[in-house]
Design a protein that fits this description.
64% helix; single chain; mainly alpha
Length: 78
């Protein structure tokens, strides 16, 4: 197994990693490995393409008649 040495880690980052490791009941080394593996396993997302797809989806949704919504909400109420 290979070794890797990290130098000049900011104190705040080290503290946050240690807190996360304790919360997840892992060693500091295991916490760092888990986070690195998750980062590299995550799919790359094209944010602009997702935003365009969302705009197209929203544009196709039917418009709400807010007058009808208000009437339905009041139905059965005194």
């Amino acid at each position: 197994m290979l070794n890797l040495t990290l130098k000049n880690i900011p104190k705040e980052l080290h503290a946050r990693l240690r807190e996360s490791a304790e919360k997840n009941r892992r060693s500091l080394n295991s916490e760092i490995l888990t986070r690195l593996e998750a980062e590299f396993a995550a799919p790359v997302v094209d944010v602009e393409a997702q935003a365009r797809a969302l705009r197209v989806f929203v544009a196709r949704l039917p418009r709400a008649d807010h007058g009808k919504v208000a009437r339905y909400k009041r139905q059965g109420r005194a």
